[in-house]
Amino acid sequence: MKSRDRKDLFPGALELMVLQTLRQEPRHGYALAQHIKRASNDLLSVEEGSLYPALQRMLRNGWLKARWGTSASGRRVRVYELTEKGHSRLTHEVSSFERMLEGIRLVLGPAAAARAWKP
Amino acid sequence: MTWIRDVFRRRALERDLAEEIRQHLDEKVDDLMLQGISRDEATRRARREFGNSTLVEEQGRDVWRWPFVEDGMVDLRYAFRHLRRTPAFAFAAIATLALGIGASVAMFTVVNAVVLRPLPFPAPDRLVAIESRDRRSSAPDTLSYPTFFDFRNRAKGLERIASFRTSSLTLSGRGLPIQLRAQIVSWDFFQTLGVEPVAGRWFLREEESPGARVVILSHETWTSVFGGDSSVIGAAVTIGGEPHVVVGIAPAGFNFPLHSRPDQIWTTLAHDASSDTVTPMTRQRGARVLHTVARLAPGIAIEEAHAQLDTLASAIARDEPDQNKNIDRTYLTPALERLLGQSRAAVLILWAAVSLLMLTACANVASLLLARTTDREREFTLRLAIGGSSRRIIQQLVTENVVLAGIGCAAGVAVAVTAIDWLLPLAADTLPRAEDVRTDMRVLSFAVVLALITTLLISAPAALRVARGRSRRPLGAGARATTDDRQGTRGLLVVAQVAVSLFLLTGAAILAATFVRIVERDLGFKPEHLMTFSVSLPSARFPLDRQVQFVDELIDRLKATPGVTAASGGMPLPLEGDEINVSFEIEQRPSAPSDRPHANMAIVTPAYFETIGTPVIAGRNFTTMDDETHRRVLVVNQAFAERFFPGESAIGKRVKPGATSKRDKGTVSREIVGIVGNARQGMLSLQPEPIYYFPYKQLPWGAPSVVVRSNTESGLEPAVRSIVAEMAAEVAVHDVRWFGDVLVQGRSAPQLAMLLIGSIALIALVLTATGLYGLLSYSVLRRTREIGIRVALGATQALIVSMVVRQVLTLIGTGIVLGSLAGIAADVVLRQRLGMTGPALAPLLALACFLVVLTAAFASYVPARRAAAINPTEALRNE
Question: Which residues in chain B have their CB less than 8 angstroms from residue A30's CB?
């Protein structure tokens, strides 16, 4: 149940990470899931499935585009790529995330903030 | 319109998503197996870590939904499920709406065809009917030729004005003679209406001069009698025994004064310029026989034309005081309105009645729905509590009502089509344009609009309740309110229903009582085994003496026919509705011509009263001696004697009627020699009308209709036809009828009205009962706990019952007061507008009130008993 508790860290966290990951290079769903898992140090080991509704949402909003291609292992996969809109969205999200984090830090004080981030 | 593209792209997107998920799981399994895990274990782990793939697909799909439409679809499915789960409610609501909408759509179908559709002529709104107005009665009256000519020559506001009067002409010389329904018209009758002939031409101005003999045939006559042969144009045909030239053919379907059977032939008013009377009809200021239709001059408003004609009429009244002293005003009515006459009012009144019914139905369904909404309050409260929007809940409620109204509307259209098929034949003879009544696009659009209005009406109370946040009360058990018993909206609905039902019931009772009086009144003659027919004796072939001789011989031959017990002639006959209203001077009370009394008259042969079965009450009957060589006499009916000679005997009194014979050269004094019973002339009249009778031989105004009383009905008509054919081959026998049929037919109009209003009122009453029952049952259900406590505290059953019933007593009382007021108002209007001499209102109103109260008591009985039977222990445990 540990992972479940941390699943929704804050609204939009998953999207933020997807956008950030795809800025580096286009990836398909499985690769995205694995990368996020690894990069977040398993902190955000959400159910892999929940990635897909988020991807659909971002497709719909026009932040991503998708095309069918072939993976390195010769698998038919759907590769996602960041669009212009996705780029500006990411910038916006990151800055507002940082503002929020700053706010939290100010309220909690350095010690409290450090304590709170410890598992 | 991105959402449309989205909907179409949806399928592809869903396929992609499903495929992607499968690939994801595959790849994961492969990865895990590379780590040395068995396939089974790898598959299990992959599934576990992925989560619920169905749910993921669903959520992925949801992203692409267009919420309003799709929520709507969900609501729709939900609504259908809901209705299926509560079949009793669904049935009640749908049946109620189907009845309401059905009745309304059926009546609209009629209104659409009869009232709303314009006349089929160019610029029909410029056509008006002109009538004269008598200062004394203010009733509209027909015009005389001289007055018509004055109007035609001097009214600048009219582009054209045409006259027409109904007649009947015999066409002979082509096999058996046939009688044609005819109009005698001024020369530009067709031009005024703005139609074009299909062949030939219309009449010319000079064809109004005496001696001109021209006719125009209807398309139907042209095709059926002349085989559509165009060589008939310019040829001579024998009309009334004299050659007439056919100048043109009217377009197919032409039917100007909206007769239930269109006219078949037209001739000009030259026909009336050479009549048998001393002065031709075209020169008699007092012979008011003409209907008119006029086309307003361009740019002239109807009021302006009306003012001009009023000025003309008062000038004529000044110049011709003997005939026109009191006729100094006119009526100008849009042509369609005038042609529809009372049918227009009748149709519109019925439509108003069914619209009330529809409102009742809506009120009832709204009431049922409101009860359901309140039942579902917990559901809504819960939804609001977890963040659902009230807009969303209202959308769902409205969707459910759209489903109800939609099904109700479809069923209603079916009801309407059936009702029209069933009822229209009853109205065919009384309703102008009945043959045009059909379900067209406008009717269907009306049904759809009605469904939308219905949705709005039935949704409003519940939606308002949700919107006002009544559902935002706490979730606790106490939310099953014990205090929320102010049933504001639903109470108003019950008041409205009671009022509407009472109003309709009163109307139905008035009509029913009127009808019963019409059926039960003494006709003053015996219609059984009594047949009538008419013969047309063209004046060219039958000058006066031959005409009288022909009638004598015909009646003698009929009397000699086996089975015939009596035969005679009369004009006009009882129940036919024709009137000859002529003024007369009572010699003991001389008066100026325009102040003289007037009454209906009839011309009869000696055995007439025995033949029709009217008793001679005083004095004597006509005899064969009452001819031109003997003193001039009259017989009057009882109503005449009582009206004009009250408190004295009419026998022996002398009267000088305006009706004169060619032989007498002017008015002659006549002695009243007998008084007979009141044979009804008008089909629907409730009061006996005064009438005075002339012996035929002293006033031979054309051949009278013949009445024959016979032991047996079969074989009489062929016998009559062969007798007439033997006597004169060119004479047509027409209008052969049995009085029994005349009676049935004549009653069909009031019977139809009574049936319609009666069934509407009954449905309304049933609706009121269900509405009231619903309200009370629901209230008892909600107050179960309260009632339980009261019973536990010692309330008696009687107390509980009175408590339950008391809450609706005010509502019923208010409804009855409002309904009675509306009923009284309607009675007053009916009496004024339709000139109805109906039965007394008070007992009928009382009866209607009694019925409503009885229904209300019945509807309250069951819920009240249920309340009285509440067991306090169970009621409290129920919470």
Answer: 23-24, 27-28
